[in-house]
Amino acid sequence: MVQTIGNPISWGLKQLRAAGHDIGDVTRRIGGTGDMPRVRTLTYADLREALRLGVQDFGALRTDVIAAALLYPIAGAVLVWAAWNGALLPLIFPIASGFALVGPAAAIGFYEMSRRREAGQKTNWLDGFRVLASPAFGVVFAGAMMLAAVFFCWLLTAYFIFLATMGPEIPASAMDFLREVLTTPAGWAMMAIGIPAGAVFAAVVLSSAVVSFPLLLDRDVGIPAAIVTSLRVTRAAPGPVLAWGAIVAAFLALGTIPLFLGLAIALPVLGHATWHLYRKAVRPA
Known about the structure:
The protein is mainly alpha-helical. 74% of the residues lie in helices and 0% in strands. The radius of gyration is 21 Å and the shape is globular. The chain crosses the membrane at residues 65-84, 90-111, 132-165, 185-211, 241-270. InterPro entries: DUF2189.
């Protein structure tokens, strides 16, 4: 049958209908249609097992995963370069530490790779990008934007803390800034306020996102149910969840040295391990 190009009006209406259907599907998935997941009580042994399985996944996909993960160190280095060479020098540490806030979303490709490997499917680094074509991508992207908003709020908070304690004058160099932070009362005050404030942001993200993104990828439950499930996992086992947060923070802190290159290992291992932690924390549908 000969195909012809329709007139612009009919073609435009067809595209609008398709876009409306996609937007409606994303909106529906944000609300979710599945049942509320049931949770298990995590143990410290579960954390060790999740890390062991995460390292196994990383080892099985080692070359491919590193190639994909190099995208994150490059992005981090660009952010720090922008702060270093501008008037945002006081935000270098908040930017680096803020990786923990967006990490649950940044690792979504690694969840997909672990999910496929767990299912016995042939997997390579390109499978991490299959999320872009997944029905869950819209709701995952919405969740990622929520974490991005939290990250932005953290940067604003950190900058206002700097202005209230050490500002408004920006130090001439990174060494001058570091010296003022470590040797002056204003620097001590900034740390005394900023570190607890950062811990609050980290605790909010940890408790609400410890299993949210693997759950959104795996099941049609919606963002509210995913957040509630993470909070229930945290309430059932606050000690192990807090320990998991400390493990994530330690991995990411080491990963930022030097110049974020360590994230090429830290992010994949944590991403794969988080998938397995989700499997241990949430009962199957």
